[in-house]
Write a structure and sequence with these properties.
By secondary structure, the chain is α+β, with helices and mostly antiparallel strands. About 25% of the residues lie in helices and about 25% in strands. The chain has a single domain, classed as Roll (T-fold), CATH 3.10.520.10.
């Protein structure tokens, strides 16, 4: 599974109104913000949904290596079907959606125990909150890194914001974008589309055509791309300047 564990120092910059915890199960490393939830409950959900994916891979070994859309499988577990559907829409392999699919599945499970939750899985975020917040965009060595962010209104949630990068982390990318953020109701779709859009960006000149291709994917609500010192955005994107004086909780 490609939601590979690594030390995520950007989490030291998180501040918000909900208690937070970190839950790791093998390669899955979640930052969870929620009230009335203990780590044991989160771990139970992670193990369950990882188990569905791992068992499917055992029975279909090529699934974990596929770089093209996987055929629809009505017999697959729901989390796997989410990955397959997202990969098909974005025209990428299903594993491009694994981190987002896990974040969303765990988040949905926790919402049966609490009314606010934020799940971050390697830059892929599923959230349902009663307060507005801002999400800072980490873009590696770009001068725009953590200087701009997305404003998320509580009325938009539940919603997902997923980020892919060709210069940060170990996830497979054929491009060189510093950050590609996609807004969608589906976390699996946002994850897959962030990968697909990022694959098309090698220089800042590629930002506009990549956004034009991403915006026609059904279910994509907004796109923000950072490449070097350039940025482009489309859709339901409300940007904000980030800093220590931000009014809203920051992720």
């Amino acid at each position: 599974m490609n939601d590979e564990f690594q030390e995520r120092t950007y989490r030291q910059l998180v501040r918000g109104h909900l208690p937070s915890m970190r839950v790791s199960v093998q390669e899955t490393d979640l930052s969870v913000h929620a009230s009335g939830i203990d780590s044991g409950l989160v771990k139970e959900a992670v193990i369950e949904h990882r188990g569905y994916i791992e068992n499917y891979i055992q029975n279909h070994p090529d699934f974990s290596r596929a770089l093209l859309p996987w055929p629809e499988d009505p017999l697959a577990p729901p989390v796997v079907q989410e990955m397959i559907h997202a990969g098909k829409r974005a025209n990428v392999g299903p594993m491009a959606a694994v981190a987002g699919a896990v974040a969303q599945s765990v988040g949905r499970f926790l919402l049966s125990h609490t009314d606010e939750v934020i799940i971050e899985n390697g830059g892929d975020i599923f959230l349902k909150t009663r307060r507005d917040l801002s999400i800072g965009i980490y873009a590696g060595h770009s001068p725009l890194s953590l200087k701009v962010g997305l404003k998320i209104a509580s009325v938009q949630t539940p919603i997902s914001v997923c980020t892919s990068s060709g210069t940060v982390g170990h996830s497979l990318s054929y491009g060189k974008a510093d950050a590609v953020c996609v807004l969608s109701k589906s976390c699996a779709l946002a994850d897959a589309c962030a990968t697909a859009i990022g694959n098309q960006i090698n220089t800042p000149d590629d930002i506009e055509p990549a956004i034009q291709k991403g915006r026609v994917i059904p279910g994509v609500l907004g796109i923000l791309v950072i490449a070097e010192d350039k940025m482009g955005a489309w859709g339901q994107i409300a940007m904000t300047a980030m800093g220590i004086a931000a009014d809203n909780p920051v992720l």
